[in-house]
């Protein structure tokens, strides 16, 4: 009987996963697979979940939000673990899981995984940290950190929209420098994204991005004036912004360097605290196998 390491965060999505543990175990047992659980907690390092992995394991099943998946991905890569990863979305946004078609219905997602096959997926890499969905900094990152979880759960992307409008008059634009073989930019920026996936906060931002093309989609919101910025953000939340010349910069690259005059600017990597400037960001083609 093949084993599956099941890593779950009991606190993600208001303890949602705890309601489905029996269903998950039942579905896997029906396929002659043994679930070996690991409960994420403050008392036990997540790395401990990976110490017993051997050739008897078929894949790793991770249940949690974007931040949990990011931590699992980084450990898999840093430990050179050659096992596919499957994702059950039970967090607040679950951006990457939704992008690959994982349903919020845990039973449906389990069945999809059990019928699925491992596929090569790209990874982003920023100053030694991996990301599977998005690296960001600027207004969006600030909004995400300030938006209460209960608002994200109840009104979704509207929570980001309203908080963004409130923060806009006082938010300080950044002076950034971006260097790549495809495009260079020196100027102001309100938001910077490097996408492997497509959405952040359930907002379809990089809707032209592909997770297996060996490229990251870079999107910069320039924020020239308050009027232009408000207009841009309106189109931004309607997912029409990449067709608007001038207000947005969009290009694809496999490698870039980013610097910012203000070294206190915080960055975000799949919902986790990101590295400091200057930044070296790259795309690792076929960096991990995901079952979907």
TrEMBL record:
Q: Which domain of life is it from?
A: Bacteria
Which cofactors does it use? Mg(2+)
Designated name of the protein: Diacylglycerol kinase
Q: Which GO terms describe its biological process?
A: phospholipid biosynthetic process
Q: Which GO terms describe its cellular component?
A: plasma membrane
Question: What would you give as a GO molecular function for this chain, any one?
Answer: metal ion binding
Q: Which SUPFAM superfamilies match?
A: NAD kinase/diacylglycerol kinase-like (SSF111331)
What does the record give as EC number? Answer: 2.7.1.107
Q: Kindly give the InterPro entries that the UniProt entry links to this protein.
A: ATP-NAD_kinase_N, Diacylglycerol/lipid_kinase, Diacylglycerol_kinase_cat_dom, Lipid_Phosphate_FormReg, NAD/diacylglycerol_kinase_sf, YegS/DAGK_C
Domain DAGKc: from-to ranges: 1-130
Q: What keywords appear on the UniProt entry?
A: ATP-binding, Kinase, Lipid biosynthesis, Lipid metabolism, Magnesium, Metal-binding, Nucleotide-binding, Phospholipid biosynthesis, Phospholipid metabolism, Transferase
């Amino acid at each position: 009987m093949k084993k599956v390491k099941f890593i779950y965060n009991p606190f993600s999505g208001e303890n949602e996963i705890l309601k489905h543990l029996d269903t998950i175990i039942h579905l896997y047992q029906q396929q002659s697979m043994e679930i070996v659980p690991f409960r994420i907690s403050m008392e036990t390092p997540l790395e401990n979940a990976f110490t017993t992995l051997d050739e008897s394991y078929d894949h790793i099943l991770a249940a949690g939000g974007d931040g949990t998946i990011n931590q699992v991905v980084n450990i898999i890569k840093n430990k050179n673990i050659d096992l596919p990863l499957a994702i059950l979305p039970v967090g607040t946004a679950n951006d990457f899981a939704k992008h690959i078609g994982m349903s919020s219905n845990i039973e449906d997602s389990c069945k999809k995984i059990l019928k699925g096959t491992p596929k090569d997926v790209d990874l982003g890499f920023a100053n030694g940290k991996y990301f599977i969905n998005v690296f960001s900094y600027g207004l969006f990152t600030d909004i995400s950190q300030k938006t209460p979880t209960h608002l994200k759960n109840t009104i979704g992307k509207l929570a980001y929209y309203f908080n963004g409008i409130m923060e806009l008059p006082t938010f300080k634009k950044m002076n950034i420098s971006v260097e790549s073989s495809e495009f260079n930019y020196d100027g102001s920026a309100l938001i910077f994204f490097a996408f492997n996936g497509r959405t952040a906060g359930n907002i379809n931002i990089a809707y032209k991005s592909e997770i297996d093309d060996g490229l990251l989609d870079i999107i910069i919101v320039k924020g020239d004036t308050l009027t232009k910025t408000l207009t841009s953000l309106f189109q931004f939340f309607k997912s029409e912004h990449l067709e608007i010349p001038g207000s947005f910069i969009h290009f694809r690259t496999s490698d870039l360097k980013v610097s910012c005059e203000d070294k206190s600017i915080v960055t975000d990597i799949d919902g986790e605290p990101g590295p400091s400037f200057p930044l070296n960001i790259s795309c690792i083609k076929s960096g991990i196998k995901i079952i979907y």
